[in-house]
Structure formats: C-alpha cells, structure tokens
Amino acid sequence: MPSETPSRIVQTLARAGYNAEREAVTLLANAPDPAATIEAVVEAADDDALRLTAEDVRCCLAQREPVADPPDVDANMMSTQTTRSDDTAATARTESPDSSSPTAPSSDQQSQTSVSTGGNNTKNHTQKTESPPEKKRLSDTGHKEFSTVSNSAERSPAPAEISGDVTGRSTGTGKYSQFVTTFRDRYERLSKLLRGRVNHRPASTIAAMPGGSEAELIGLVNDIRSTASGHWLIELEDTTGTFPALVMKDRPIAELVDELLLDECVAVQGTLSDDAGILFTDSIHFPDVPRTFRPNTADRHVQAALISDVHVGSQEFMADAWNRFADWLHTEEAEHVEYLLIAGDMVEGVGIYPNQDEELDIIDIFDQYEAFSEHLKAVPGDLETVLIPGNHDAVRLAEPQPGFDEELREIMSAHDPKITGNPSTVTIEGVSVLMYHGVSLDEVIAELPSDKASYDEPHKAMYQLLKKRHVAPQFGGHTRVAPEEKDYLVIETVPDIFHTGHVHKLGWGKYHNVLAVNSGCWQSQTDFQKKVNIDPDVAHAPIVDLDTLEMTVRKFA
Ligand code: D5M
Ligand code: FE
Ligand code: ZN
After folding, report:
1. Pairing state between β 551-555 and 540-545
2. CA separation (Å) from 355 to 351, 432, 502, 503, 527?
3. pLDDT for residue 273 is more than 90
4. Is the CB–ligand 1 distance for residue 366 below 6 Å?
5. Upstream peptide bond of 105 is cis (omega within 30 degrees of 0)
C-alpha cells in the first residue's frame, strides 16, 4: 500500500471510511512503516469513529516495535519533497492594485502570469522563491516528520454561506412566456441600478414627447446596427416598447458601442430628433460596479484556493500535478488555505463536444465522478470545499445550472463539500465570492475587440460582465439560458471576488476593487485546443488572501 504522501494517506483512510486530524496524517506519514501503521490504526479505531486523532496514531505507534529508518529511504523522501517544493516555487504576488483604474491592474496581470509560468519579471510584481522547508523532529517518537507537514492547529473554516443558487428552485419549462418573465426580472433589477444616474422615462412616453426634448431611457439592447453612413443605431426595449438611439460615429461614446452585447441593460441620455422618432445619444451608462466600491475582507489571515476545470476522466487530466497540489495542501505552507472553491468542470463528461470520446480515459460518467471523488479525497478533509457545475458536468447545460443531484452528491460526499448551482455567491469569512463557470466568456471574447476581452486576458472579459452586472448577458448565442421566475444571472450585489473558469486560461486583476480571477485548468492541451491554437494554463492554483485580497499563484505542473 503506497502511503508515503499525506494525500495518499488521506485517500486510504477515506476509503476505509475515516477522516483524520492533520496531525494524525503527519504522524502516519512519518511512521517507519506507514502502511502497517495505518492498518493498525484503522483496526484499533472505534467503528463509530469518523475522525482519527493524533492520539489514536500515537497509541498505535507506541504499541509497535520502533524500527530505525534506513538513512537512504529517508533521504529519498526528502529529495522528492525538495523537488516538489522547487517545482512549485514560482509564485507571483499582486502588488497593491490601482483602485482608480480598471485597466492598469490588468496590464500588470499579464506579466504576473508570465512570472508564475517562468516568464519576464517587471517592476510591477515580485517573484517569490520558496526555499526547501526545514526538517523537523518529533521528540516523542524519534522519527522524522514528513518534511513540510505542519504539526500546527487544525484548520477551522466557517461554513460557506450560499446565496443566489437555483438548485431546487427551478421552475422553467422553456415556454416563451417564461422567457418574458425572466427578461422582465432582468430589466427590473438592472434598471434599478441605473435609475439613480438617469431620470429615465418609459419608451412609450418618450415616443410622445415633443421633438428636441432632452430624454433619458433605460432598456435592454434589442438590436445594434450600423447605418449607411457608419453611425450606430441601437434599439432599446423596456416594458412599454422599443425606442431607437443613434450614436454618431465620430463621438467619443461610439467606442462604447463596441462593448455592447445584445440583451444587456444600459441607459442612454440625449436629445430627441425634430420628429421625436430617434434619440441623438450623448451618453451611455452601464449598471457597472461603483468606483467607490470597497470589498469586505476577512478579519484573520486565511486563504482560499480558487480552481476550476479539473476534467477528471479526460486522457489529458494531469493526475500527477493534482497530487502535487493535494500534497502541498497538507504542508505547513498551506496551513492558512482553509477554503477550496472549484468553479465547474469537475469531470470531462461524455458527449460534450464532437469526437470527445476519442480522448476519454474513463468513458462512464459515474465512473468519472467516482474518480473525481478519489482525487478530492486527497486534499485535506478539514478544508471547506465548494463545487459548482460547468458545461462538462452532468447537470442541465442551460444556465443557471442547478447543483449536482443526489446521486452525484453521494458519490462526491467524502469531505462533505458544499454543492451549489452555477452561478452562486459563496461567502467565506465575510468575503463574498461570485462563482460562475464562465461559458459566456467565450462569447464576450468573440464579440468584443481584443483589447477589451481576449483568451490571453480572460479577466478583462470578466470585467465586462461586472460592468454589465450580468454573468451571461447575450441570449440565444453560445450560452444557453433557461427561463426562470427570476434572472439568476444578474449580478445584483457586487461581489468582493468574482471567480470563473471555463476558458482554461489563468488571468486576474481588479476591476473597481473587485478581484476577478479566472482559474486555469488541470487538463493539458486537447486535440481540439491544438487545432484552434488554445494554449491552456495548466495546474496553477490561484491562492487568495482573504484578509487583503492579494493573490499568489502556485504552479504544480
Ligand atoms: O472549454 C475550454 C475552452 O475551449 C473554452 O474556451 C471552449 C473551448 N473549447 C474546447 N473544446 C471545444 C470544442 N470542441 N468546440 C468549441 N469550443 C471548445 P471546456 O468546455 O471547459 O472544455
Ligand atoms: Fe473546462
Ligand atoms: Zn467549461
């Protein structure tokens, strides 16, 4: 039984039906014969016990004959650890972000990303190199402790609070009238955010106003067209009707037209034409995040790992990198990481894309979740873990996606993760994290100019979603949207952190003080990605300090 690493020990114990205190895992990892010691501890454990304690392990160790470590065995173990530590050494920290500018931190971010992947260093960031951890001795057993595993206190995460979750509340059957209800709710809630900034009138009232009047209108974007002379005609719709707004091509606001997506909610202000049939637009307003927004932070030093796109079951799933990540989470360095958030695509799924089956390692969807669960067991059991589904997961594809059903929850129940819908707002240590898998990012990137959103800077696409206060504004395209009584995809309350995945690229930055993080993935490049030149950012774990919202990226590839 190969039990030399903490994650394997945790897995072995979980298979036997036990959780274990961190210190117990440490002691087992350093036992002269971990496999036999585990067996003895499991044998001696009370059948009703769920959690093995350090005391349980010490009892067994005391009963066993002490066996001296062959020096070379120990040396091997240390060198493995050292190598791993070196592998994970490249980290990048964000410098204090420029709170007044949404674009400045983003340009920093690219170089930070390159640092984490071994690229250029610039004045905007620091590269932190971790030195190999010191070896410690356990005075009571005389055995060497697992090199980086801490003996310190257990993690004590508070339960994550969940809101905005559709799970169990879905009422949509796909009828046209239900889409109308969803869109009315979208309009109601997003127009409320704009009402303080414009003195708007309903479209029907504006149509009856005298030519030349000043007018302000809030509506969902129904159509965007360019006129014969290159100006822009934007049709807005509210609950009373539609009204056209003209944006002249040589006005500075014409640039904003590039950012518009169909079905998003905006306000326009301008002057009616002489016949009152059109609004000459002077300004366009987005619901946006107020520049004065100040995020909440934790009142103790505690961290969260934000990851996504594990894709277990794919031939490209990087099991070794995952194990290194899981092992690292058992080390002293990771003792402040108390939360693990996974933003969708736990497994590769079946039949998601054409010819996907040719790259499947596990062809049965339930077997994929069983395998994912085994990998989840490798991370410390005392982490508070939250899972939302993605487009590869076995829940409905249309958003909002409900959380995993009972059968899948049962399969993934090992460390009792919180399972919630996509999207959901998860509050940890007072910090709200909007988790959204990110399918709409493909669309934002396809529709918007590359300086506003690109695969290389996925966080900028996230900024657009924050600006539009909606995680999937455009209806009827790539992102499938299910009609519900309310629009769960509206970002009604500004989150402190916005966490997405899906595009398999790492990127982060601050937008009006909201930390936007797109985690990479744990799947190396697939054939499809090779063909379309997507170069995924694999095996990175963004780690956020919840007390400062600073980020560190650890690489496990
Ligand atoms: O998708 C990961 C990224 O790759 C995301 O940007 C979509 C894109 N992708 C991957 N495979 C395909 C196919 N076959 N068609 C179109 N787009 C694709 P994920 O869904 O997370 O695997
Ligand atoms: Fe994915
Ligand atoms: Zn995805």
Report:
1. antiparallel
2. 8, 39, 19, 19, 10
3. yes
4. no
5. no
Does 534 contact ligand 1 (Cβ within 6 A)? Answer: yes
Q: Ligand 1 atom 3: the closest Cα is on which residue? A: 503
SS (H, E, C) 384-399: EEEEECCCCCCCCCCE
pLDDT one-digit tens code per residue, 241-265: 999 999 999 999 999 999 999 999 9
Going from the Cα of 220 to the center of ligand 2, the distance in angstroms, rounded, reads 30
30: closest CA among 123, 154, 149?
149
Question: Distances in Å between the alpha carbon of 294 and those of 17, 112, 160, 300, 477?
Answer: 44, 23, 21, 18, 34
The residue whose C-alpha atom lies closest to atom 16 belonging to ligand 1 is 353
Estimate to the nearest angstrom the gap between the alpha carbon of 192 and the chain centroid.
28
Amino acid at the residue 480: R
Asked if residue 67 has pLDDT above 90, the reply is no
Average pLDDT over residues 221-241: 97
Q: Which residue's CA lies nearest to atom 22 of ligand 1? A: 502
Return the minimum-mean-pLDDT range out of 38-47, 109-118, 167-176, 372-381: 109-118
Counting ligands in written order, the one closest to the CA of 347 is 2
Mean pLDDT of the chain: 84
Using DSSP, state whether 500 is helix, strand or coil. strand
Give the closest residue to 312 by CA, choosing from 153, 145, 522: 522
* Residues above pLDDT 90, as percent of the chain: 67
Distance 164 CA to ligand 2 centre (A): 22
Q: Judging by beta carbons within 10 Å of its beta carbon (0-12, 13-18, 19+), is residue 356 exposed, middle or buried?
A: middle
* Strands 303-307 vs 279-285: parallel, antiparallel or unpaired: unpaired
What is the pLDDT at residue 535?
95
CB within 5 A of ion ligand 3: which residues? 345, 390-391, 502
Nearest to residue 81, comparing CAs of 35, 23, 148? 148
What is the 8-class DSSP label of residue 492?
A: -
CA of 212 to the centre of ligand 2 (A): 52
Q: Provide the pLDDT confidence category of residue 29 given band limits of 50, 70 and 90.
A: confident
pLDDT at 290: 97
Please give the pLDDT value at position 3: 47
> What is the distance between the alpha carbons of residues 557 and 555, in angstroms, rounded to a whole number?
6
Ligand 1 pocket, 359 CB below 6 A?
no
- Nearest 5°: the CA angle 418, 422, 424 is 65
Question: Residue 48's pLDDT band (boundaries 50, 70, 90)?
Answer: low
Q: Dihedrals φ, ψ of 516, to 5°?
A: -105, 125
